[in-house]
Amino acid sequence: MTLSPNQLTAIILVGGLGTRLRSVVSNLPKPMAPIKGRPFLEYQLAFLKQSGVTKVIFAVCYLAEIIEEHFGKDWNGIEIDYSRDETLLGTGGAIIKAAKMMPAGSTALIMNGDTYFPISLSKMLDRHISTKASISIAMFESDEAGRYSPFSVSKDMKIATTSDENSRLKSGGIYIISGDVMADLRKRPVVKTSFEDNLTPEYLAENCSMFAYVEPCAFIDIGVPTDFARAGQIVVLPDVG
Q1: Alpha helix locations (H) across 11-119?
Q2: What is the pTM of this model?
Q3: What is the per-residue burial (b if ≥16 Cβ within 10 Å, else e) of 17-50?
Q4: Which long-range contacts does 21-25 make (Cβ < 8 Å, 24+ apart)?
Q5: CB of 130 within 8 A of CB of 143?
Q6: pLDDT single digits (tens) 139-167
Q7: Residue 83: pLDDT above 90?
Q8: How far apart are CA 236 and CA 49, in angstroms?
Q9: Contact between 108 and 134 (Cβ < 8 Å)
């Protein structure tokens, strides 16, 4: 099996309320918060463009019109569509709804719209294929407890549990989900649920093949004021022509 980033459809989760960031960004959806004068989502799309991804679905809800008016249907050659949530569905519900817009059998790249983690998507995809994973999760190492989703991972990088508070491996908010799991998601009803807290443990319990991809590179979550303030020194806008 061969697969390249330009065959992936990226679903970017951008529907949250951004309550933790309201003290500094109150009139915009969190992923549109300005970093060095440009909306954070432009950095996300530039990363995807540089990686070879050409199709994106924004899962929108809160202040969706601001995102839609800014990006429209195309950004620097990336085709953009919108999965519109009328109410907050959680990460799982938003992915389920967006999955119904994708062709049968297709592989999805899932990204949080408020985190910066510029890994090599081509290397992650190669690892996803070589391990025959149904779900791959990009992870980083951190000793910070309580803020990120911690995972227990074996020596061969297979994920064992999603609730190991002693693990230094935390989700970086980037997932590759193969066609078999996407087909299951498409069949599910659109309900409010968490991908991390509800669906991922469910798939593990069903012996779904799930692997971690770890790459040492910058990670930042702009969702809290302290990290948002640091983002200007960390986030880089790639040259996309």
Answers
A1: 40-51, 64-71, 90-99
A2: 0.92
A3: ebebbeeebeebbbbbbebeeebbbbbbbbbbbb
A4: 21/222, 21/223, 21/224, 21/225, 21/228, 23/225, 24/225, 24/228, 24/229, 25/228
A5: no
A6: 998 877 666 777 888 889 999 876 666 77
A7: yes
A8: 14
A9: no
